[in-house]
Design brief:
Protein name: YvlB/LiaX N-terminal domain-containing protein
Strand order of the largest sheet: 2-1-4-3
Distance between the termini: 34 Å
Organism: Clostridium aromativorans
Strand content: 15-25%
InterPro entries: YvlB/LiaX_N (IPR053959)
Radius of gyration: 24 Å
Shape: rod-shaped
Order of helices and strands: HHEEHHEE
Structural class: alpha+beta
Largest sheet: 4 strands, antiparallel
Number of domains: 2
Low-confidence stretches: none
Number of strands: 4
Keywords: Coiled coil
Number of helices: 4
Length: about 130
Protein backbone atom coordinates (compact mmCIF):
# COMPACT_ATOMS: atom_id res chain seq x y z
CA UNK A 1 0.00 0.00 0.00
CA UNK A 2 2.92 2.38 0.63
CA UNK A 3 3.94 2.15 -3.03
CA UNK A 4 0.47 3.19 -4.13
CA UNK A 5 0.47 6.17 -1.76
CA UNK A 6 3.91 7.20 -3.01
CA UNK A 7 2.62 7.10 -6.60
CA UNK A 8 -0.41 9.21 -5.63
CA UNK A 9 1.82 11.77 -3.91
CA UNK A 10 4.11 11.86 -6.94
CA UNK A 11 1.07 12.59 -9.15
CA UNK A 12 0.12 15.46 -6.82
CA UNK A 13 3.68 16.78 -7.06
CA UNK A 14 3.47 16.64 -10.86
CA UNK A 15 0.07 18.42 -10.73
CA UNK A 16 -1.68 15.42 -12.28
CA UNK A 17 -3.97 15.15 -9.21
CA UNK A 18 -5.36 17.68 -6.78
CA UNK A 19 -4.89 17.24 -3.05
CA UNK A 20 -8.60 16.38 -2.68
CA UNK A 21 -8.39 13.71 -5.39
CA UNK A 22 -5.29 12.28 -3.76
CA UNK A 23 -7.04 12.17 -0.39
CA UNK A 24 -10.00 10.28 -1.90
CA UNK A 25 -7.67 7.75 -3.54
CA UNK A 26 -5.69 7.20 -0.33
CA UNK A 27 -8.90 6.71 1.69
CA UNK A 28 -10.11 4.26 -0.96
CA UNK A 29 -6.85 2.29 -0.62
CA UNK A 30 -7.20 2.19 3.16
CA UNK A 31 -10.81 0.95 2.91
CA UNK A 32 -9.78 -1.72 0.41
CA UNK A 33 -6.95 -2.83 2.69
CA UNK A 34 -9.29 -3.02 5.72
CA UNK A 35 -11.75 -5.16 3.72
CA UNK A 36 -8.93 -7.48 2.68
CA UNK A 37 -7.81 -7.91 6.31
CA UNK A 38 -11.41 -8.66 7.42
CA UNK A 39 -11.89 -11.15 4.59
CA UNK A 40 -8.64 -12.95 5.40
CA UNK A 41 -9.55 -13.19 9.10
CA UNK A 42 -13.03 -14.53 8.26
CA UNK A 43 -11.57 -17.18 5.92
CA UNK A 44 -9.01 -18.19 8.54
CA UNK A 45 -11.77 -18.54 11.16
CA UNK A 46 -13.90 -20.62 8.78
CA UNK A 47 -10.92 -22.88 7.97
CA UNK A 48 -10.16 -23.59 11.64
CA UNK A 49 -13.83 -24.34 12.34
CA UNK A 50 -13.71 -27.15 9.76
CA UNK A 51 -10.82 -28.89 11.54
CA UNK A 52 -10.84 -31.56 14.24
CA UNK A 53 -9.48 -31.45 17.78
CA UNK A 54 -7.65 -34.67 18.60
CA UNK A 55 -6.93 -35.68 22.19
CA UNK A 56 -4.84 -38.76 22.86
CA UNK A 57 -3.95 -39.98 26.34
CA UNK A 58 -2.05 -43.17 27.15
CA UNK A 59 -1.41 -43.58 30.86
CA UNK A 60 1.00 -45.98 32.49
CA UNK A 61 -1.99 -47.48 34.36
CA UNK A 62 -3.61 -48.56 31.09
CA UNK A 63 -6.11 -45.73 30.64
CA UNK A 64 -6.27 -44.83 26.96
CA UNK A 65 -8.22 -42.03 25.32
CA UNK A 66 -8.28 -41.30 21.61
CA UNK A 67 -10.90 -38.68 20.76
CA UNK A 68 -11.48 -36.63 17.62
CA UNK A 69 -14.06 -33.86 17.88
CA UNK A 70 -15.00 -31.11 15.41
CA UNK A 71 -13.54 -27.74 16.43
CA UNK A 72 -16.96 -26.19 15.85
CA UNK A 73 -18.42 -28.53 18.50
CA UNK A 74 -15.57 -27.77 20.91
CA UNK A 75 -16.13 -24.01 20.61
CA UNK A 76 -19.85 -24.42 21.33
CA UNK A 77 -19.18 -26.67 24.35
CA UNK A 78 -16.55 -24.32 25.78
CA UNK A 79 -18.90 -21.33 25.42
CA UNK A 80 -21.95 -23.02 26.92
CA UNK A 81 -20.64 -25.58 29.41
CA UNK A 82 -17.06 -24.46 29.94
CA UNK A 83 -15.58 -27.92 29.41
CA UNK A 84 -15.13 -30.66 26.87
CA UNK A 85 -17.38 -33.68 27.50
CA UNK A 86 -14.54 -36.09 28.25
CA UNK A 87 -14.15 -37.84 31.58
CA UNK A 88 -11.73 -36.13 33.96
CA UNK A 89 -11.20 -39.46 35.72
CA UNK A 90 -8.77 -40.62 33.00
CA UNK A 91 -5.25 -39.98 34.21
CA UNK A 92 -3.65 -37.12 32.29
CA UNK A 93 -6.92 -35.43 31.31
CA UNK A 94 -6.98 -33.27 34.44
CA UNK A 95 -3.91 -31.40 33.18
CA UNK A 96 -5.39 -30.30 29.85
CA UNK A 97 -5.81 -26.53 29.83
CA UNK A 98 -9.10 -25.75 28.07
CA UNK A 99 -8.27 -22.05 27.93
CA UNK A 100 -5.12 -22.90 25.97
CA UNK A 101 -7.14 -25.01 23.54
CA UNK A 102 -9.70 -22.24 23.11
CA UNK A 103 -6.97 -19.65 22.48
CA UNK A 104 -5.30 -21.95 19.95
CA UNK A 105 -8.60 -22.33 18.10
CA UNK A 106 -9.28 -18.58 18.22
CA UNK A 107 -5.82 -17.86 16.82
CA UNK A 108 -6.20 -20.39 14.01
CA UNK A 109 -3.38 -22.60 15.28
CA UNK A 110 -3.06 -26.02 13.65
CA UNK A 111 -0.93 -28.98 14.53
CA UNK A 112 0.19 -30.30 17.90
CA UNK A 113 -0.50 -27.87 20.73
CA UNK A 114 0.19 -30.19 23.68
CA UNK A 115 2.74 -33.01 23.74
CA UNK A 116 3.58 -34.26 27.24
CA UNK A 117 5.45 -37.40 28.23
CA UNK A 118 5.77 -37.83 31.97
CA UNK A 119 8.42 -39.74 33.89
CA UNK A 120 5.73 -42.32 34.78
CA UNK A 121 5.15 -43.05 31.10
CA UNK A 122 1.94 -41.04 30.67
CA UNK A 123 1.55 -39.53 27.20
CA UNK A 124 -0.85 -36.67 26.47
CA UNK A 125 -1.18 -35.20 22.99
CA UNK A 126 -3.63 -32.53 21.85
CA UNK A 127 -3.65 -31.38 18.24
CA UNK A 128 -5.82 -29.53 15.79
CA UNK A 129 -5.93 -31.32 12.44
Amino acid sequence: MNEEIAKILKMVEESKLTADEAQELIESLKDKNAQLVESTAANSNEDIMEKMLRIKVNSHEGDNVNVKLPVKFIKIMLKTVGKIPISDSVEGMENIDLNLISEAIDNGLSGKIVDVKSADGDIVEVSIE
